[in-house]
């Protein structure tokens, strides 16, 4: 399966949606059927599309009221489709993608961009948070093996960026959901001495919890 090359039209978005359904079905049967580079290409394409459709909103004021209404409806649909597709591809990105040096770096850059940009949809950010939680849990079970792809520095870096997410555009429900999910992730990493090494838990306590989560301060992660 290859990522569609056209950009910004309904048929292209539909093609990506269909491709992701096929990839998800294949992954459920055998993950090796899915080429990591294909997932990377789709994620790169969708991240560009998200910037295009979101960036188009300010230009609506230059149109007539009727044109603006049609354009707004179309762009809302486009944004919704891109967001849905981004979440779908994020759920498919696993250790097979991240173990490839050619994939890990661009995927990490895209995730950092999503986390740092103002206005990123809260559901996409929650999907990234869930991904980091899944990666951290899976990866430290493989620590020291060839299947581990996250370093201690990677984990701490993701946690720091997650703590700095701009929530001004979140609904009150989304804020509550985000805070709960992030605190659960942070607590799980700091409190589970059977899964995570002391060095990691201490670094999280020092660099994340004490700097960004003042209400959860503790002397150590024990």
Reconstruct the topology from this structure.
Blueprint: H1 10-29, H2 36-55, H3 65-92, H4 95-98, H5 101-116, H6 122-141, H7 152-163, H8 172-191, H9 198-212
Helix pairs in contact: 1-3, 2-3, 2-5, 3-6, 6-7, 6-8, 7-9, 8-9
In short:
With 222 residues, the chain is mainly alpha-helical. It has helices at residues 10-29, 36-55, 65-92, 95-98, 101-116, 122-141, 152-163, 172-191, 198-212.
Features:
about 220 residues; mainly alpha; 2 domains; 9 helices; about 70% helix
Please tell me the overall pLDDT: 80
| Weakly predicted, low-confidence segments | 58-63, 215-219
Distance, first to last CA: 47 Å
**Number of structurally distinct domains:** 2
Structure description:
The protein is an all-alpha fold and 222 residues long. It has 2 domains: 1-92; 119-222. Helix content is 70%, strand content 0%. Helix 3 packs parallel to helix 6 and helix 7 (152-163) packs parallel to helix 9 (198-212). The longest helix has 28 residues, at 65-92. The chain is globular, with a radius of gyration of 19 Å. The termini are far apart. InterPro entries: Tra1_ring.
